[in-house]
Amino acid sequence: MNGTIPAPTIEYALLAPMLVVFGAAIIGVLVEAFAPRYLRSAIHKPLTLLTLAGAFVITIWQARTGIPTTPSAMGAVAVDGPALFIWGTILVLAFVSVLLINDEGHFVASAAAVPGSAEEERALTEGATHTEVYPLVLFAVGGMLLFPAANDLLAMFVALEVMSLPLYLLCGLARRRRLLSQEAAVKYFLLGAFSSAFFLYGTALLYGYAGSVDLAKINTALGSVGGQDTLLYIGVAMLGVGLLFKIGAAPFQAWKPDVYQGSPTPITALMASGTLVAAFGALLRVFWVALGGLEWSWTPIMWGVAILTMVVGAILAITQTDIKRMLAYSSIAHGGFLLIGVVALGNNQQQNASALSALLFYLVAYGFTTVGAFAVVTTVRDAGGEAWHLSRWAGLGKRRPLVAVVFSLFLLAFAGIPLTSGFFGKYAVFQAAVAAGATPLVVVGVVSSAIAAFFYVRVIVLMFFSDPAADGPSVVIPGGTWAVGAVAVLATVVLGVFPQPVLDLAHTAAQSLFVR
Amino acid sequence: MELYVPILVLAVLAAGFAAFSVSIAPFTGPKRWNRAKLDAYECGIEPTPQPVGGGRFPLKYMITAMLFIVFDIEIIFLYPWAVAFDSLGLFGLVEMVLFIVTVLVAYAYVWRRRGLDWD
């Protein structure tokens, strides 16, 4: 017991964005514990926004001072170009989502009280609110930051759990349609826990194969370990199931409509943007860094998954009558488009970099548009809460032209119409895929884009060319939602008309690919 | 393959023991009626009759059990640290303090939210 174990070297400065977010989340829990109830939300709102802004500033500063070329924290975390770009994206999207969360009336007073019961009455008169939302969001964002930057499978698993557990809780806190919200939380939790188990089992099998959970070492082992192919293939498949579940790729998409519909809409916005970005970052890192040498084995499967995801997302979206479910299926379809970019991995460094930068740009563009679209959904309200049924949106263009125009812009961006951000995102990903020889996949992508355009345009037609119902929903736009809408419109238009700066940034970030 | 023979033997022994004890118990055990024996175990909920609107059920036992798990895990990490305290040095101490502080924050939250009160 006299020998000393060398202390690990940890580059705290490089991990600072995550440390700031996690630290603020812990302070948030202390606020929950010790601050009086009437002060809590007044402390949480600036704390959360300042934290996310501060972490963003640190991320920018890191990107400017030089990107490390080796993994940090003893190889557990890789703060490389793509990771920094994804961090920046997640932090901005989370900031915008928190603006949406700040507006009153999205969250339940007391989640445990039955609607209409005496306990519910008491919670309402006491002015109780679940201000735990803020620390939970910060924990989730911290997990989202670690997830795409994790350079070994165990760190990635921890990140996956830190990201998911707060989201499971947040899903169940909707103020209206309580049962649907709690159902969403339980479904997300059960399926999410199941997929985490798949991920962990895959990790164990890959460790059995490679003798390491480090992504780069697994890649090295692909060339040197023989006769263990069963372990390898089953491990990769299970790992893939865990990751594909998180991005909602078919056939693991079943949770997405239910969860997106039932969750409080600002949380849906956070999940549909931040979680998707984080999960794609992690998926790319695992498949390109750890399994890059196994490309010939997983690419055909990924082709199938991408095609299935696009087709299922686009076709099932047509049959939806609920706006949130429709956006959920649209998110599934977009996951499929992004998967096209994942397949575009080859032996050519330059081509890989352009595929990666295309994906990064797509994630930014899609993230902003999604948050904006869900922000609009929060504003159209009936007596019983948000009006989700599409028939309630009929004639909105005549009653509130501005809201309808903004929503139409987002839908056109989803459809990938030129002069919106969605066009350049899709164009860049399809171009990278064609360069990588995945032309048939691009054909399927274009066809499903056309199918998807149908249901986006159908909503626009419904808003502008139908007569409004006499008892139509009212439109309420609180201050935060205004800001979110403005930011999202700005991002969608600027990225659509003048995308070069962000394309360049994504290109620079992707240039060195993922570090090993 | 021979490496696994003792494990197989152990598995057979364990299965045999389980089967033997379960099948012998009804014949050898005394049968004294007690109401508590027919109740749902500890934290269990009576499945029938269904209360109106789903009803509310106490979470006291669940919260206690969850807290137990939290501190159990804390101990699990404290043990190896205590054993290797000298060799881990200052770094180990700092990391452990950080870990305990984090758990303490959760504990403070539970305490302030009256998670420690039984009634």
TrEMBL record, chain B:
The lineage of its organism: Bacteria, Bacillati, Actinomycetota, Actinomycetes, Streptosporangiales. The chain crosses the membrane at residues 6-27, 61-82, 88-110. It catalyses: a quinone + NADH + 5 H(+)(in) = a quinol + NAD(+) + 4 H(+)(out). It is a multi-pass membrane protein. The keyword Ribonucleoprotein does not apply. Its EC number is 7.1.1.-. InterPro entries: NAD(P)H_OxRDtase_bac/plastid (IPR023043), NADH_UbQ/plastoQ_OxRdtase_su3 (IPR000440), NDAH_ubi_oxred_su3_sf (IPR038430). This is NADH-quinone oxidoreductase subunit A. Its main location: membrane. Keywords: Cell membrane, Membrane, NAD, Oxidoreductase, Quinone, Translocase, Transmembrane, Transmembrane helix, Transport. HAMAP family: NDH1_NuoA (MF_01394). It holds the Pfam family Oxidored_q4. NDH-1 shuttles electrons from NADH, via FMN and iron-sulfur (Fe-S) centers, to quinones in the respiratory chain. The immediate electron acceptor for the enzyme in this species is believed to be a menaquinone. Couples the redox reaction to proton translocation (for every two electrons transferred, four hydrogen ions are translocated across the cytoplasmic membrane), and thus conserves the redox energy in a proton gradient. It comes from the Bacteria. Belongs to the complex I subunit 3 family. It is found in: Cell membrane; Membrane. GO terms for molecular function: NADH dehydrogenase (quinone) (non-electrogenic) activity. The keyword Transmembrane applies.
